[in-house]
Amino acid sequence: MLATAHPILIFLLAALTVGGLLWSVFQPRLDGGSRASDRLGAVINGPSVAVSGALKDRARKKSVDDVLQEMAEQEAGINGKKKPSLKMRIRQAGLNWSRRTFFLVGLTAGSISFAVATAFFGITQIPAAGFGVAAMLLFPNFVVNRRRKKRLERFITELPDAIDVIVRGVKSGLPLSDCLKAIATDAGEPVRSEFKAIVDDHSMGMTLADAAARLPERVPVPEATFFAIVIAIQSRSGGSLSEALGNLSKVVRERKKMKNKIQAMSGEAKAGASIIAALPFFVAGSLAVIAPEYISLLFDHLIGNIIIAVSAFWMLMGVLVMRAMINFDF
């Protein structure tokens, strides 16, 4: 029995010995292979995470680029027109006029100009009618454009303070819509009415980005476009709204300082243009006092009236040219 079991035991011992030797030789390689596999998996998965983050950043950048392109196209569509419609200009001026009121104001100004030209200056009816038509066309547009310019300037002045209110509200945890409501209630005009329009559009179902995108249409200034771009980018790609609006507030204030500096530097040219424009009227008034019979020829004869009309026209053209030369587009 032992004789038959002895070869089996020898075989088992030999198998165990050989197996132990093989395990001792190949075990480090097997462990290294598993570690290599783990490392390879980490290498493979690591770039996938990096690539995923890069793709997210690329998608976010693409979203921002899309927003900027849309806003640029919208601004180009607004600025591409020669000038806004009459209704829009009246709206931007903050006047409650209708088209009928606008034309009635022009008709009244033309009638008064015609009456003053014929009654006080003794001008004949045909040149006086020319003055009346000119007043009818120019006076209401002058009033609307001047009110519009002043209102846009007030908006630019008040906008940084409104943005600072939004920044403080967002940092304290208030939603953006509540901050806009606070501005629509407590801010000064015209910021209050314009932000109230944004709040009203949002309450009617529009998103804040779409409601803010309509602001440059009502207030065609770069600062309003900047604000709409910041809101649109934050709504699409996220990010710190308070930081973006804080930077926008600084940019708007610096633009205002630069504009004031440019106006101060161009003050000398404006003063010279004003003196040149007022000089013909000063000379005509002086001649009317010193030699009234000499200057009266322009008012008593048809040729003199024509000379006055032509001179006034070219004087107006010169004033407009000088105005275009000294007004810097900033």
Architecture overview:
- 87% of the residues lie in helices and 0% in strands.
- With 330 residues, the protein is an all-alpha fold.
- The protein has a domain at 266-330.
- Residues 1-7, 9-13, 25-37, 39-56 and 77-81 have low confidence and may be disordered.
Structural class: mainly alpha
- Estimate the global geometry from the Cα principal axes: elongated
Number of helices: 14
Helix content: over 70%
Rg value = 39 Å
Distance between the termini: 113 Å
Count all strands and give the number. Answer: 0
Q: What ranges have pLDDT less than 50 throughout 5 or more consecutive residues?
A: 1-7, 9-13, 25-37, 39-56, 77-81
What percentage of amino acids are in beta strands? under 5%
Major pleated sheet: none
Q: Report the average pLDDT across residues.
A: 77
Order of helices and strands: HHHHHHHHHHHHHH
Task: Put the structure in a nutshell.
The protein is mainly α and 330 residues long.
Chain-wise SSE layout:
Layout: H1 2-79, H2 86-93, H3 99-119, H4 125-171, H5 176-186, H6 191-203, H7 208-213, H8 215-218, H9 222-237, H10 241-265, H11 267-290, H12 292-295, H13 297-300, H14 302-326
Helix pairs in contact: 1-9, 2-4, 3-4, 4-5, 4-10, 5-6, 9-10, 11-14
